[in-house]
Amino acid sequence: MIEWSETHASIRDSIRKFCETEVKPKIHAIEHEGVPPYEVLRKLIATFGIADMARMRFAGQIEKEKARLARAAAEGSTPDAERERAPRKPSPEAGMEMAMRMIPVIELSRYSPGIVTALGVSMGLTANAIMARGTIAQKERWALSLMTLETIGAWAITEPGSGSDAFGAMKSVAKRDGDGYVLSGSKTFITNGPYADTIVFICKLDEGNEPKLRKVLSFVLDKGMPGLTQSKPLQKLGLHGSPTGELFLDDVRVGKDRLLGETEEQPARAATKETFTAERTAVAAMALGLVEECQRLSIDYAKTREQFGKKIGEFQLIQLKLAKMEVARMNIQNLVFRQIEMAGEGRSMSLAEASACKLYCAQAAMEVCNETVQLFGGNGYMAEYRVEQLFRDARVLQIYGGTDEIQISQIARSLLETG
Amino acid sequence: MKILVPLKRVSDPDNANKVKVTGGKLDASGLEWKPNPFDEYAVEAALRLTENGTNTKARVGEVVVVTFGPKEAETTLRAALATGADKAIRIDALDDALDGDVVARALKALVDKEKPDLVLLGKQAVDGDSNQVGQLLAEYLGWPQATFAASIKSNADKALIVSREVDGGALNLKLTLPAVVSVDLRIVAPKSVTSIHTPATHTYPDGVRFAALMAIMAAKKKPMTEVKLADLVTDAATKIKYTGFELPPSRKAGIKVKTVAELVEKLKNEAKAL
Ligand SMILES: Cc1cc2nc3c(=O)[nH]c(=O)nc-3n(C[C@H](O)[C@H](O)[C@H](O)COP(=O)(O)OP(=O)(O)OC[C@H]3O[C@@H](n4cnc5c(N)ncnc54)[C@H](O)[C@@H]3O)c2cc1C
Fold this sequence. Notes:
Chain A is of the alpha+beta class. Chain A has helices at residues 6-32, 38-47, 50-75, 79-85, 92-109, 113-133, 136-147, 268-304, 316-344, 351-376, 378-381, 387-394, 404-418; strands at residues 153-156, 173-177, 180-191, 198-205, 216-222, 228-230, 244-254, 306-307, 310-311.
């Protein structure tokens, strides 16, 4: 893939028009007045028929899974083995589906990487976690309404004492209690935490053993369950379009129906790594939106702002900024294209590749946003010009979904192990 | 009801500052294209007349969109197909070789072939702002016409009551089909278009509809045909001759005044505005 196709461009133009007419007028309220982003996101989903598409995809996946389970039962193998055996075939539709997921992310990121995060965590991360490891009953109960954004989801692993070392230092626990479990612990920095209807809560099974050896389990919680408290949104540097909060669990009793996969033997660590990979690849699309917007604004400003009797675009130091933005834009766009191409081939990035992609895109987007503020001078620092918000928002790309340092160590580990 | 909607792509009006003139000719290279907004309103009105607003997937009429232009102009047609139009026709022609009169004559020939009940157009294209095609076409066809429609009420798809805003009120015209109607921007208000197919209680969202993502993909499979301009008009001579283009003079830099008195003095003696 070397450029967007005509169909891609039509989708982009349509989403762009929606952003201009529906998102732009609400940005101030969302970014500065604490208005949650869900209403405008639901309008997006309804306008473009995304919920209908999700319903179709869901029905198809459930049908396939039922067939797989039937096959496994007939042959006496495990459903997981069946899953592994199923070859991933190239399909242009899968490429198109990936593009259709990326394009709205790119376009929305021009206005608000925050609302993209709120959307991605709910429809993407949380729904995918349930779709990847839940039982059919759990998928029908929680995942479908997340995929259509009828409900809002949160995915909670980070704790006050465990961030980068998510599993090692994790304190949240589940204790067996009759047929079910009692959950306790607290989570922080949870996207959509304050408003979530459905929460995937990741914790360790306390069997009286050493914490390091404990199994990792995921549970699905509903808003309003006795013992569950969802905090108000936390104040933060940027990303105001995405409410972030804390969760407190004080002896929340749950049945086995809320244990993801309904088995303690689920490979939760592996599943969580899959979630990380998906999270990391989405950063490329967000970075592309940010960089394209910054570059567009910068070019306009360079052509109109005058100092020393010249357009500032005539100064070589300003030209250098524009040229570097173009290099970043080309590289990030190529990484987005690569992901679409891979999806069409029935492949996806390995964790190390996704880490390298995320590391580059996050740093490049931050650099471009920083240079854009610089190019705008004092105006760049003022809220009236949008680059100030984009600059603050871009900063999070180097922190969430694994910090830059963690990406680096994962890339290096992979090189040293296999290289 | 079968409706023909002529569409034009225009250079994005937000990019007016990118228009270049080289050698007395307009240079369209590097410009972004958008559908003429009034034409988009015409498509929206046509769709509303040919559907039940409570179930827009089932069509109860036909909307044919047509444009004049090179192959790339098909993008504009496909966007209209994605929002619900049923088929598209591109009349292969270059912008330079057209004026309102040639377009109207070619459309007349197309109407003779396609036999629509109604031709619905935007009141004007926002590039040249000529505001001629609808009126000329009605004349060439000998059909009744209504211009600048703010609302359209279809009487059992046999006649239309078309309302136009005029100073101090509204002018209502009753037209027996077939007819030519050009639309103004109010036509996309929630209750501007009514027909027997949509319950009177139904309210449309304000403005032009968006295409669902699946519909954008499906638009590739809808019929798109190409017709040569020469197959429609034997005499392709334009009545308007463009002799030259020039950009408006760029605005002179402003000056800063120190006091109100100085401002008043300059307004009076230099600008002669007071
Ligand atoms: C806006 C926002 C939204 C978020 N949303 C969610 C969410 O929805 N769900 C969720 O579970 N979490 C979420 N997070 C949490 C996020 O994933 C963590 O903040 C992130 O993983 C870093 O963890 P930490 O904050 O504890 O930093 P720490 O892990 O304490 O890191 C502090 C510093 O030490 C460095 N460091 C740590 N370990 C190493 C090492 N081994 N080598 C070198 N350097 C190291 C880090 O890179 C960093 O610079 C969100 C965070 C933010 C800011």
